[in-house]
Amino acid sequence: MATILVLNGPNLNLLGIREPEVYGAETLADIEALCAATAAEAGLGVRCLQSNHEGELIDAVHAARDTTVGAVVNAAAYTHTSVALHDALKSYPHPVVEVHLSNPHAREPFRHHSYISLVADAVIAGAGSCGYAHAIRLIADRTAATGDPDTDEPATTRK
Ligand code: DQA
């Protein structure tokens, strides 16, 4: 079964507890379950990983190159700092959708720049957990349009 990588960055393990007025009441487990259910509707699977460590996120992108058909990425604070994650995603050969629970552009100025947006096919911000479901559907649609989900091999690759 073709698989979508769902990558969550630092502090997102605390969802539900951390600033619920900003990030919502749902836990990371809730969001990962939503991703799995949404992907299943399209006949796809998910591989979910959350890490507080930049290198682990980069390793996950590398490991997903040949085994996934797209990536949903909420890099959290690394969004605004990580050239290394930007570079890893730049050489990831499938669609990348950047997701944020909140709308960083309506927040502090240091959240206004994203290193991920430069290498993302789409950005969904401020839609809460629904943003993840939209991102999964977007990748599912692109996979259906460009490749065979049964083989994990898109007929055309983006980069
Ligand atoms: C976030 C926004 C980032 O600015 C912040 O550092 C996060 C979460 C979001 O989902 O809204 O940790 O990516």
From TrEMBL:
Q: In which pathway does it act?
A: Metabolic intermediate biosynthesis; chorismate biosynthesis; chorismate from D-erythrose 4-phosphate and phosphoenolpyruvate: step 3/7
User: Which keywords annotate this record?
Assistant: Amino-acid biosynthesis, Aromatic amino acid biosynthesis, Lyase
Please name the catalytic residues of this protein. Y23, H100
Site described as Transition state stabilizer, located at R18
InterPro entries the record matches = DHquinase_II, DHquinase_II_CS, DHquinase_II_sf
Q: Which HAMAP family match?
A: AroQ
- Name of this protein: 3-dehydroquinate dehydratase
Source organism per entry reads Brevibacterium celere
